[in-house]
Design goal:
mainly alpha
Length: 114
């Protein structure tokens, strides 16, 4: 068992990753390396989604403790599961956007006259 502060720290990291991935649209720094301009956003959301599921499981398992008393709350579990589903939808949207960008890049490369 670990103290509630670690649980809250993970929640802050989860929120920070989600906020970063939503605000940092079109960064493009890794486009040449991977061919996908929003790979950083996708990776950040995948990590945030994993952390949300982890926080949901911790909420009902009693792994985190508050003054030595295990924290078990089914309501928190459902809140984190809803957050995880929303993050999963954002991941799918980012993947679809990356695929459309990839198709556009392939189409533009094919139409250039060399």
């Amino acid at each position: 068992m670990y103290p509630i502060e670690i649980y809250l720290m993970i929640a802050v990291i989860d929120g920070g990753l989600s906020l970063f991935s939503l605000l940092e649209k079109g960064m493009g720094a890794y486009e040449d390396l991977f061919g996908i301009s929003n790979i950083v956003n996708i990776v950040a959301l995948i990590i945030a989604d994993f952390l949300s599921v982890y926080l949901a499981l911790v909420s009902v398992s009693g792994t985190a403790t508050l003054n030595g008393i295990p924290m078990q709350d089914g309501g928190l579990m459902w809140i984190w599961m809803i957050v995880a589903v929303v993050q999963g939808v954002f991941i799918l949207l980012e993947l679809m956007e990356a695929y459309v960008e990839h198709l556009d890049n392939q189409e533009n490369k094919g139409s250039l006259i060399s």
